[in-house]
Amino acid sequence: MPSISNQTAIAGIGQSEYGRNLPDSQLKLGARALKAALDDAGLQREDIDGLSIHMGWPLGLDYDRVAEAYGLNTRWAAQTWLHGRFVTSALQQAAMAVACGLANVVACVTAISFTRERQILGGPGDHEGSREDGGTHGESPSYGLTAPAGGAAIAMQRYMAMYGATSEQLAAVPIAFRKHALLSPYATMKKPLTLADHQRARMVVDPLRLFDCCLVTDGAAVAIVTTMERARDMKKKPIPIAGMQGMRSGRDEFIFAPPNLGINQQPAHSRRFTAADNEVFAMAGVGLPDIDGLYTYDAFSPLILFVLERFGYCGPGDAAEWVQNGRIELGGELPMNTSGGLLSEAHVGGWNSILEMVRQLRGEVGPRQIPNAKHLQFSTCWGDSVILGNAL
Questions:
Q1: What pLDDT does 140 receive?
Q2: Given this model, what pLDDT does residue 226 score?
């Protein structure tokens, strides 16, 4: 297969502050992040000729309004709406546009004002779920299932019934990510989390307790993508995009579980997934032992278990035990979401983890640094993935 491995790189990153009830609009938060990314790369606004935004309706503006507001003149643009499914899609589209010559420098922009949008849209429930009328998202508003937590909860209920996993085992995920957040200057959560805290927290959707569900925050993040050749001449160390694979869809897929639990239209089976099932490793020229840290869209704690199994780090039903004893913590075998992720740093659509990966590979994160990190992977349990490498 043709490959664009290492042809493109992330050359600059930037962010706004993260928090709840921030006074600034999405557009202003995004502008702050874009300015920071331009400064990080040593670029000017006029250098941006491509735009890949991850903030479309119903929780944001369209690409043309963003370009107009930021004073950009682009010759290529792509847009996804604000959902964790589209983190890697937005980044992959930017990389492909640059590799194909459709743009020279692409800004990937996400800006989120969940607290402000909640006030505008009003009331409980998930407006995106209603728009999809169920879909592969797992929501089914006509049956009262109106929020993403329901889909993740159903998948975890099935997983627990099949494999005997427990809520106490699941708690290892948010506890690990809270430890990481305590080391991040950007994190909104600053209080340690214990197993007792997790177990006495209120149930949101059985078996998901409060700390199994992501934060609701405001913030913005930007990553600038260009050719590897051009990135070498920029201000900061370039981070190559070494491997990619797209998100999966079809009757065997359910967005909140790997295709083996028998959820929705999935068949129930116990086939183990391996690196050979995932072309991202072949494109990057690495195997599972080469991955120094794994990052994922952790909207809900079970998604961590599911991504570990989908990408072959452990077998079906093994992940709940696999994550115990600090295995996914800094200093463990496979550190995950080392800035705290959506569960403890902030909900920035997953882009806070992309920025964290870049900082890790640059060696900029101090006490939460993964020693000698060379390859970091971002993946979701619905199958998309990107591997970032150290500069060639």
A1: 63
A2: 98
Strands 8-15 and 218-227: antiparallel
Identity of the residue numbered 342: L
First-to-last alpha carbon distance for the chain, in angstroms, is 22
> If you count them, how many residues does the chain have?
392
Q: What is the pLDDT of residue 121?
A: 47
| 266 contacts 252 by C-beta, under 8 angstroms | yes
Dihedral of alpha carbons 157, 161, 165, 166, sign: positive
Token pair listed for 222:
């930007």
- Taken in order 252, 213, 85, 295, the sign of the CA dihedral is negative
H/E stretch holding 362 reads: helix 351-362
Domains of the chain: residue spans and CATH: 8-120+217-241 (3.40.47.10), 147-213+242-389 (3.40.47.10)
350: Cα within 13 Å, side-chain hemisphere: 27
**Contact between residue 220 and residue 15 where contact means Cβ atoms under 8 Å apart:** yes
Report d(CA 388, CA 361) in Å as an integer: 8
Three state DSSP letters for 291-305? CCEEEECCCECHHHH
Angle at 364 between CA 359 and CA 368, to 5 degrees: 90
Q: Which pLDDT score is estimated for 115?
A: 76
Strands 385-389 and 105-113: unpaired
Weakly modelled stretches of the chain, pLDDT under 70: 1-2, 56-59, 116-146, 391-392
Q: What is the pLDDT of residue 122?
A: 46
